[in-house]
């Protein structure tokens, strides 16, 4: 009997379409069915390095539909599982006449114990949706980075690796290739039944961050040179990017986007001819890393009066001996084109916060200038060491990119690119605490905010928590701004202040848009199955 290895995951949805993603243990036909509703959609699996995957695309659905479904593999029903304590998974399309609720977070370690990483906000969120019939469900679940940790392994992952290679074989205590990554995803998304059910019934979108590949991924040109000098790096980067394409990126795309994607077409064609598309994806992944402009991981979707732009701030970086940018030129032109008015709300999701606590922003801007030679060659070498040691590689450390994006959002917020939205919000994670920051100058018609929710399950501890708490204080920003000024960094084009937070607990946030109103709420797991409110704010005042 053909078995379901991972999934089903409800991925891209619109008003009338939905996508179900699965991994199976052999090549097969995958059907998604509900006889009562006349639902019967199917797809053949494709094969990559001996693993089998399928995306079943469903069209012609009603807006706001809630349709229970079953997954059938080669004629045998494999989902829902007979012994499951959870309700039937549903296909949930968007309601064109309703508002929009997006729940989001980042940085989730799994498996692990509460003593190691605290309680899992994602699992508690699932239990709340299951248990409370009166709760309002999110329309979208957005995971903004570090869905897996390829460089900080669980005991289960170490045991898997020991079965494949020696403990001293590099990269030591890290994922090495595509096969390792497939097991990382299983551990992250299969270990907890609540999370597996959640991903099967809430439409999910993602973007990667550094730990999905390796800590400090693409920090600088020097970092890239060092990594590519390692004999094991090619298998690591191609395995990480190829697996991301399968397990995360494909589900972010609309059916039309997938149909037009040449890589997806090549992979499916290889499988239809009885082949394995592993080499195709390996070559694609290597090119995506070496030539970032060759691939776009960013995407944008319009849902009612809201536009969500999800920005790749890792793989698309411009890092050469002479230039550095958070985005390469092609990627920035794309983002510039997406930043338009005419919507009620513009959301820009980036795994890395665009607006950091101001002391950290100025410190990173100073470090970039020093590493770039503002204080001479010796200072540049020291600056690069500090950059990598302290993870100084957010938007603030790409000062030109920061200013370019500021120009875009100011133009949109002033109504220079169509009617100004009520709100422009950056949604981010990465830094392992949560907060809301508001832009106070220059004045715009739109409220411009930074909403951070991190971690889902991987809290800061001890000295790291206290260091960041101090950095969030207004009193600490002046000295770092002076350092930045002395290294030639101009005054930032935006001025902002943290108005809510910081909160350091595991958390999940929900942004709710209704008409021209936008609100956000952060919740933290009180135990393994319940959530308690940590903070809330009105984004639009």
From TrEMBL:
Domain PhoD-like phosphatase metallophosphatase: 137-225
SUPFAM superfamilies per record: Metallo-dependent phosphatases (SSF56300)
Domain DUF7800: residue ranges: 1-91
PANTHER family: METALLOPHOSPHATASE BINDING DOMAIN PROTEIN (PTHR37031), PHOD-LIKE PHOSPHATASE METALLOPHOSPHATASE DOMAIN-CONTAINING PROTEIN (PTHR37031:SF2)
UniProt name for this protein: Alkaline phosphatase family protein
The species this protein was found in: Actinomadura rubrisoli
Organism classification: Bacteria, Bacillati, Actinomycetota, Actinomycetes, Streptosporangiales
